[in-house]
Amino acid sequence: MKKILIIILTVALIPILISCNDFEEVNKSPNDVSNISPNFLFTSMTVNLAATYCGLSEFNGKVSPLVQYFQKNDGYQSEELNALVWHPNRFSIWESAYSNLVNVKAMSDLSVEEDNVFLEAVALVYRAVFMDLITKVYGDAPFSETNKLEEGIVFPKYDQQKEIYETILIDLKTARNMIEGIPGNELPVLDGYDLLYDGDKSQWIKFINSLRIRMCLLLNNKKGELSVDIDAEFQDAAQNVFTSNADNAVLYYIGTSGTNSFSDGPFNNSIISFSEKMGQGLLDSLRAQNDPRLYRWLRPVEKKWDNDIVTSDTIQVTDPLGQTFPIIRLPYPDGFDDLITDMYVGIPVGNDVSWTGYNAGPYANSDEPKFTSYVSNLAEMYYQNANDYVSRKIITYSEVEFILAEAAAIGAFGVNDAESHYKNAIEASMDIWGIYEDYVGGFDFDNFYSQESVDLSQATNKHERIMTQKWISMWLRPESWFDWRRTGYPNFEPPYRADQPALPIRYHYDTPNPPDPQYVDKYNEAIGRLEKSEFVQSTSADDHRSKMWLLQGTNMPY
Amino acid sequence: MKKKQFHGDFENLPRKAMRIIQLSLFLIVINAAMFFSTISYSQGTNIEQSQEKTVTGIVTDDEGLPLIGVAVLAQGTTNGTVTNLDGDFSLTIPVDIEILQFSYIGYQLQEVVIGSQSRINVTMLEAAVGLNEVVVTALGISREKESLGYSVGTVSGESLNETPQVSVLNSMQGKVAGAQISQTYGVKGSSISMVIRGASSLSSDNQPLFVVDGVPIYNTVNNQFNQVDLGNAVSDLNPDDIESVSILKGPSAAALYGSRAGNGVVLITTTTGKNKKKGLGVSFNTALITDAPFEYFPIQNEFASGQQGAFAFEGDAYEFWGPKLDNGFIAQQRYADSPSELISHENNINRQKEFYQTGLTQTNNLAFSGNYDKANFRVSVGNFLNKGIMRNVDLKKNNIGINGNMKLNDKVDISIMTSINESNSGNRPNNNDGFTTPTRGILTIGGQVDMSPYKNPETWYMPGQEGIVQRRWKDRWNNPYLMQELATTGYNRTQAMSKVQLNWEIFDDFSFNASYLRSSLSQRVETKKPYNTVDAAYGGYDLLNSSEREENWEGRFSYTKTLTDFDIVVNVGGNLRDNVKENIRNSTTNLVIPGYYNISNGGPGSVIYNNFWSQKKVNSLFGQSSIGYKNMVYLDLTARNDWSSTLPKDNRSYFYPSASLSILLNEMFDLPKWISLAKIRAGYAQVGNDVNPYQLERYYNFGEDWGDAKRAALDLTAKNAQLKPEIATSQEIGAELSLFDNRISLDATYYVVDNENQILNISTPITSGANSKLINAGLVRGKGWEVALNSSIIRQKDFTFDLGLNYTTNRTSILELADGIEYFGTKQGAAYFYTYPGGEIGDIYQAPFEKVEDVNSEYYGHGIIYANGKTRRVTDPDKFEKIGNFNPDFMLGILPSIKYKNFRVFANFDWRSGGEFYSQTMMFAKNDGKVAGYYGGESYDLNGDIVQQIKDNPDKFIDKWVGGRDSEYGGFTWPNEGQREARSYVNASGEQIYVNDASFAVGVQPDGNGGYIENFGGPETIWLSPYHGNRSQDRLLAEANLYSATYIKLRELTITYDFPKTLINKMKLQRLTLSAIGQNLFVWRKSGIFIDPETAFYSANDGSGALQGGWEYYSVIPFTRSFGFKLGAEF
């Protein structure tokens, strides 16, 4: 009996001895990792950078209605978006940009640990791009004291815009030099993790330089106040920038889930309401210069008013890109005198009511026009999950050529030959949109270029001409807003019944959250440095029409 | 260096102790096994032959009726019997036995000296209520209530089962002083929050620990999946199995439960065979209840959908600011061939009546019990079926409970308990506000819509596209009937708990108790989404399997000694706890084959896999001692030390003591005879609390892959490697009085609880590098009174009237927060639930409009109107205004009961007084123009000059808007001819109708020179549509949608008939009762609005699992009344 007891006792004691509690082990999360490869952050950051930047002017942003690419014809707060009635915090990028900066810092730290110079340089570049975006959208912004929670800084100060640019301009050069210093042409990144250039060293160098010249041009009006010699910076960078569309910094959608699909594809928006309609001004410009990109971006109306028929019928229309659409023709109704009978119809800029019924004649007060449109919808590709033409373009060869053309035109940075850069820029844009591939009978660019409205040599105001063509070529990209702010071109008309007779020139800061007095103090310091324009109504200078340092003293855009 | 070593040694201490306990436990098991093996043969030889005699007799009650099942026991032996159906007994006993004991539940114990009698007739006397009440306290130790120095609330099983409820928590509503129990959503089976002595933790759900027969069980409120509330697990318990519930309200009572006791402990004791009649017994209960909706959200039926009055009828909006119905407005409507007049179809109340249905609840329970000399057992089987008040919503529960106790010998007994509670549903209601929610959808369809194609399943889909393309009345909305039937979230949950406990009386006064306590919860929940719904173009399937398991190994030595003047009890023990949690979730938002719900049907690249696993261990040592002196003074001391795996090494050990004193004045002094009990008590205690696992280190999370590349991101919550345990310190004093032969008894407690080092997830600006950070902060103090008053107002033979009152009041304030944190709280809609140091939890603030601040201005106090005609709110928190607090001033449970002959009437009134809540439902209903009474802004004399009216009475108009949908409701004629034309239409008779809905926000426009232009309806006024007038004023001020939370509910009313004993004896029954039941027969709200303030809860979106009080969103479920019957029988 005793023996049995001892045996059982011994057997029972083993698990007790083994079950020594190692609390540290128990409290290590098996779900997440505390140390990973910076490559995994690199992919996240590339996707988020493209999304944050392009999101400004995509269908869920507020920049496109401002630069009049499209107007919303229904949907949540479409009326306010069209009238440029902007609200603090709404469609803001503050939270997303700064959360990405947290990860950019983490990527930088991990790269240093792993001794990966390339990803360390990328972290510098991405930080510069995010900060550039934040500061040009809002003005002064937390920078030098960000990501220092561990050091006890809960409420970072808002650095002056000038100082931010002085830092990030040099950071870009530093990053370029770091990458140049990596031996060979293969960059140290996991296969498939560099979503932009697949580890191509020379393209990364061109990308950074292209970003630098974009930034220099942005700062051109203020170069006297900067401690950095931006002429030298520009000239250094311009030696090796994008030379073809193959260099473009573009992220393509994959289209297999909501995350990797376009915002209005079925994954993200199961109800396609076609609520984006091209602004009438852009449509007129495209039509005036017989621009084939129109057919890439727009489809004809589904129902067209026609003065020449008495009974409705359906016709098939083939556009210059060889796409065929059915169009229902309706006899022009009695009692209406302002209906548009064109095949392509946009929406006038700004409105104070829903445009659902625009150009719908007798059907205006019903819910019917939404489903059979009297206004052109954007092309089918904008309602797909993924399409090669619908991508997130961070900076392109076309934009680089426009930058060079503008620099030449205004006599900046010692750049010459505005015309050939300008021509390259438009040509590159045509190429991006597949015009050469699809134009039935072949696209004759020279013929297109020779039109009076396109040809730079025939322009009285070359700067304006360049900026107008750039605006068209930069379709659905936010850069047009920053360009207009800087140059006043193209001279956008304020929308009908806008909140103010002037277009917004910045985003309202996110209201301090948490609204801690220490935070509010820092915030108040920053808005104290904003300059109210004549259009600012509110008591606070934190207004959509206040001037940040970039615009102060420039008389631009107003 | 030295210090570190000290820590190390200290930590080793419990480990060694644990090993000793485990070892002892093991030895006990061995011992038990040996006993089992010897019992069989020892029994035969144990019986000694001796001289015996037989005693017979009859046992009756005070009315002379025989009592069946009375236990008759020869004192000092295990020799006994029970009375038969006629109350007769016959017992053969050794001649040297002198006393017979007669015991029967509910009656006083009788001891009769046998002497030379061979026939003994006994009359049992009913036990007086409240005297020597025994309550279950921490660790399951039964104590006489009068010896306790702290407040324990008790609810008997009988009182719990007055009416059959879904959850034991429903049954407790109004019956416990000091506890606020709220159903968080107006549907049977939804989560129920129980908060004892006020919410003291700022970051947790403040729910108490539930312990069933010693087994701590899982109970998650806010058990949400895809916006569907799956109810809390404690609701799965079988109320019929509950013998009693003890509520250990403060740390004093609960200190022995350690970390988790900060919010109190609810000890549930299940029914055993022990107190049942000797031999085998059977009891059966069945009940049937109907739930009839009777009050619906009052949606107007006068105006059609739209935002812009008659000007534009449609749009994708859900507002009801459209043209007047039945007024000649012609419009093209969806799926119609040609435009037609907008007419009202069935009114919205009828629409809701059609959509909802009468629910049905059925409960059955069958229990067998056995009570024998050496053992007792009880096996219970229960089921519950509920058909919801919404279509295709159900709830089922199945319960099996087994417990038993066996005396292995004089020294050792073993108890087991196991209970399996399963609940499941094919579909639970979506309680969110989203577009997909049918309960919202039904309120969103304009009065102009003919519902018939949406009700009929055959026309849910467009012809030829069945299952693929939904017919919907608007793009952005789903057909609520289709959603109710096809978009479902169902679950299946099994909760199992078991206990094996061994008691070994080592010496007379010294015993050892070892137990293994285990509870587990596994839940499978799946959401199905059909094709072509608003948020799921290709449907979807989401499946989550989760499981939780807790194990406790516990060992305890007890020493009990009764000396002449002293009663001493000492308990010392240890506990090893291990919690494990696991989730596996797979989902797709892209079904290849419509209607086939399987993960393998997910489109390529669309399936998301997720798993989560966490573990936590806590080791504890504890001790408790109680010293009583001459039944006059009792002193209790407890101490416990916990070591938790989730805290940093240096902070992981925490100690907490408690002390309580009870003084019985009636024993100490010669008090008047009418005072049967006068007791004062005082208690002091501390408890600590740890955190969830993995809160010390910041981790990276993997996101969805981008093609072939992995993606990761840093968690945006900053963790804290220096976290300290939370410490709650409580002090309470109380008094108990029992007067006039216990006809009045009073139990009152005042308490103060200080919560220090609270672990808070405070928000930080993302620019700091994280959007929140875990910190230890603050001092939160809760104070309150709990009073229970029971009185027997009439006590006659055939007629008694008792009244119970439970009064609860609590205020919790923040005294300190951490450096750099100015407030704690969240914002919902226009309401800020912020508490600043010095303020009370539950405070509600709003951001007022920007105003003329110059006191010398004639427009002082008027809102500033901007060029768009609207006001703006200030953003500076210093200018926020406090507008209310969501906590009640007091709560009162009123429990009258009347007994007349064989009839009993019981009622349960629940009165909550004071406090406010913010109604987002009302905010949106007004914003959306859905409720009558809000067709216009602030009322004014339509025939008078509005400018003058505003000037004469500015206070009435400040912050308001003026105008309306048309001139009848206060709208003005648009002064601008163009606008006037634009807002007009040609009606069916060809007349031009001007809508005349010009409106404006009251305030002043800055003129740019420091002066102001009146926006009072005069020529300079900036006119708005009424929709925008409302939107810019009423919607933005929280005060406009803040309502009183005061209510009175008649939760329960039962009339029970106890069949007379003469009758049931003939039927060979022990008990037979029939009850008529009513639940929620009336609900009075002081606010006068539809919303039930009890449901003013919303799940926090911060991942804390907390339910936020004080606000609600789309609580639009109709009020229901329930009626039914219950039949109970015992054999």
- Unreliable stretches of chain A, pLDDT < 50, 5 or more residues? 12-20
C-alpha termini separation of chain A: 101 Å
Helicity range of chain A: 25-40%
What is the oligomer described by this structure? heterodimer
Gyration radius of chain B, rounded: 34 Å
Pick out the low-confidence regions of chain B.
1-13, 24-49
Q: Find the structural class of chain A using helix and strand composition.
A: mainly alpha
Strand-residue fraction of chain A? 5-15%
Strands across the major sheet of chain A, in which order?
6-8-7
Radius of gyration of chain A: 27 Å
Question: Roughly what is the average pLDDT of chain A, rounded to an integer?
Answer: 89
The tally of strands of chain B reads 60
Instruction: Name the pair of protein chains with the most residues at their interface, and give those residue counts.
Output: A-B, 88 and 101 residues
> Kindly, what is the distance between the CA atoms of the first and last residues of chain B, rounded to a whole number of angstroms?
71 Å
